[in-house]
Amino acid sequence: MLLALLSGCSANSIGDRLGGFGWPRHGITLQAHKMYDMWIAATIAALVVGIFVWGLIFWCVIRYRKRGDNLPVQTRFNMPMEVLYTVTPVLIVAVLFYYTAIVQTDVDKLSAKPDQTVEVVAFKWNWQFNYRDAPGKDARTLASNLGSSDVIPLLVLPTGRKIRFEETSRDVIHSFWVPEMLFKRDVFPGSTRNVFEVTLDREGRYVGRCAELCGTYHAFMQFELVVVSPERFDRFLAAKTGGASTQDAMAAIGFTGDERFAVTTRPFDTRRDGQSWNQSGDSVAAGK
Ligand SMILES: [Cu+2]
């Protein structure tokens, strides 16, 4: 009952007040908010059950503590009791299953006509983001942002539009992960394309990472998600399709100086040419 009540209305605000119960707050997609509400409601339901059980245990410990050497009445086969503790857990599991299925279906849902399709190409050890004119393998790439050892790839996207991601890898299995989306999905090589959609609802810059151990420089395989208004996104894409570099296109929508590059992470040189590297990723002469 609690789960049903809470997931309907204010799980989000209750959860915020209680610190999110360990779940990262402030997801940046509509899908993330639904998963967050699900987590809060399920945790509150679990706490209610937990407090009830702890209460019963303490009540029994105190009420029926040992008072003498006579054995208390020994009861066997209490049918109502047995039915109760079979039916109640089944009901709890059924309710949890129901809401999990609802939220999962919603998060996995693909729209018939997404507003923007992005092909995510992962490779050892970087990312390429292709802005496509339609979903599907036969669509045309309008513009690309490619990462290198010198530049973190930027994935610039608008708020309020349905973004479809189509993932493919050139070599091994990687995983596309932006922590603030509260979501990650593996990127497979070959013909299997993982596809999912999100609608972003908060502007900002967020680090993205590979979340599947893919080789020596897996830890350096990072990108940055730049969420801007739809109007600025349109100008960015127009600049890119017009042949501008990613940094020039960033400048065209008002980012200046170092803001034209990633601000949440920085490149790590994955070329190895006799140099060694200190902890902060800066090159130091070999042998020092
Ligand atoms: Cu990877």
Descriptive tags:
single chain, 288 residues, alpha+beta, Immunoglobulin-like, 2 domains, 5-stranded mixed beta sheet, 6 helices, 34% helix, binds copper (II) ion, cytochrome-c oxidase activity
> Which percent band covers the strand fraction?
15-25%
Give the biggest sheet: 5 strands, mixed
Query: Termini, distance in Å?
Result: 65 Å
Q: What is the correct CATH architecture of the largest domain? A: Sandwich
CATH class of the largest domain: Mainly Beta
Q: Total domains, how many?
A: 2
Characterise the protein shown here.
A five-stranded mixed β-sheet has the order 3-2-1-5-8. A five-stranded mixed β-sheet has the order 4-10-9-6-7. The chain has a two-stranded antiparallel sheet with strand order 11-12. It has helices at residues 2-8, 11-17, 30-63, 79-108, 230-241, 246-252, and strands at 116-123, 126-132, 141-146, 154-158, 162-169, 174-178, 183-187, 194-199, 204-210, 222-228, 276-277, 283-284. The mean pLDDT is 88. The chain has 288 residues and is of the alpha+beta class. α1 runs antiparallel to α3, α3 runs antiparallel to α4 (79-108) and α5 (230-241) packs across α6. It has two domains: 10-64 and 78-108, no CATH class; 116-267, Cupredoxins -  blue copper proteins (Immunoglobulin-like, Sandwich), CATH 2.60.40. It has six helices and twelve strands. The site of copper (II) ion has 7 residues, from loops.
